[in-house]
Write a structure and sequence with these properties.
Length: 197
């Protein structure tokens, strides 16, 4: 199992992940050949690294299991919404509610604060105890933006089974990575060879 996880960590981002952290979140649990999966949010430490790489939390946030569980829960809701959009099906109301709840759980307004030495200033509160809530809100807002943007029409699931990653299609590309494209082409070539034998 360890070799599959290491292989997955080397997998490049799917098209669209750099622009959309919600897409990256949806793709953080990957189905691999042989019935294996890689969960990049499997432990609090992995979840913290994942958030830190996307500038959604400091690297030393000290996330607890409850925080990683919240992130994995939002991932399932975002995956559900993306799958509904790709399939042209209505979304589950629970998934829509989960994204809306994550967006509205934290204050986004810049508040008036007063420093004794420098005077008034405005800032958005971001206490360290709410790091995950702020990250969830940012990801949820991105999911809402992605699902309502022109990119939504180009959302697709990787066309190389068993891969379950989503991507924003550019041109004719239907795979999340070169590795998946190579695997799909090899499977087609094998199928053609065995059909003629």
């Amino acid at each position: 199992m360890e070799e599959f996880v290491m292989e997955e960590l080397a997998l490049p981002s799917a098209p669209g992940e750099a622009e959309h952290p919600s897409l990256a979140l949806a793709n953080s649990a990957v189905a691999l050949p042989g019935g294996h999966t890689a969960d990049l949010l499997g432990t609090p430490g992995q979840a913290e690294q994942w958030l830190a790489r996307r500038d959604l939390a400091p690297a030393d946030a000290g996330l607890a299991e409850m925080c990683a569980t919240q992130l994995r829960s939002l991932r399932e809701q975002v995956r559900s919404l993306l799958a509904s959009r790709v399939a042209g099906q209505p979304a589950l109301s629970a998934a829509v509610t989960a994204v809306n709840d994550a967006m509205t759980r934290v204050p986004t307004a810049s508040l008036l604060l007063w420093d004794e030495k420098t005077g008034p200033y405005r800032a958005t509160p971001h206490p360290t105890t709410a790091i995950v809530e702020h990250a969830l809100a940012a990801i949820a807002a991105d999911a809402a933006d992605l699902l309502t943007s022109p990119d939504a029409a180009r959302l697709a699931v990787c066309a190389s089974p068993p891969c379950n990653r989503f991507l924003v299609k550019h041109g004719r590309r239907q795979w999340c990575s070169t590795r998946c494209g190579d695997r799909a082409r090899a499977a087609r070539a094998y199928a053609r060879r065995t059909a003629t034998d």
